[in-house]
Design a protein that fits this description.
By secondary structure, the chain is an alpha+beta fold. It has three domains: 80 residues; 26 residues, no CATH class; 88 residues, Elongation Factor Tu (Ef-tu), domain 3. Helix content is 38%, strand content 24%. It has three helices and seven strands. The strands form two sheets. It has a five-stranded antiparallel β-sheet with strand order 3-6-5-4-7. A hairpin with a 2-residue loop joins strand 4 and strand 5. The two termini are 81 Å apart. The C terminus is likely disordered.
Length: 209
Amino acid sequence: MDANVAAHAAERALAERELARTERLLAVAAATSQQGDRAEREAQVVREQLAGARAARGTVAGEIAAIDAEVAQLDDRLARSRVVSPLAGTVLSRYAEAGEFVQPGQPLFKLAALDTLTLRAYVSGAQLSAVRLGQPVTVRIDRGGSLDSLPGRVTWVASTAEFTPTPIQTREERAEQVYAVKVAVPNPDGALKIGMPGELVLGPSAEDR
C-alpha cells in the first residue's frame, strides 16, 4: 500500500510539473487553451488518485488495528482458559475430563504435594509445655508390623483444648481434653501415604501420641 501511494505521489508531481509548464507556455501564447485544460484535468485526476490511495491506506491501517485488537482479545481468552497448577504435586482426584465444559470456579483436580506430609497428633495438657513451634520431633510409622522412626518438625500448635477424636488411639487412656499439633514429615521417597497412622514422639522419655 505504501508503494502504491508513493507511485501516485510521483505521478502527481509529474502532472503538476507538466501543468506548470503548460501554464507558462499559455502565458506567452506558446500553447493552446485546450492543452492547458487537458493538463489541468490530468493533474486533477492524479490528485484524486493520490487522495484515494492515501484514504485506502488509512482504511487498511484501521482494519489492521482492529484485527490486532481482536487477536489480543483471543490471546487473552486463551491464556485465561489455560489451567496451570499453582504447585507441583500428585493428582489425587479428577473432577473433569479434557474438553469438558466447566463453570468458573469449578474444581478440576484435587492435588497434594506429597514430598512433605503433615501428621496431626494430639498431646495432653501436661505435655503441652514440652511442645513448641519449629521443634524437631520423631514420628513413628507402622510399616508391615515394624515401627520406622522419621524426623519431623512442629509447624502448628492449637491454642485451645478439645476432646480427643474417637479414632485416635494411644497407649494410655485418653485424657478428657487434648491439644492438636501439626508436624511436617519429609516424604522424599513417597513411602508415606495420606491417611496412614503415625505416632508422635516428643523426646526420648516422652509418651507417644
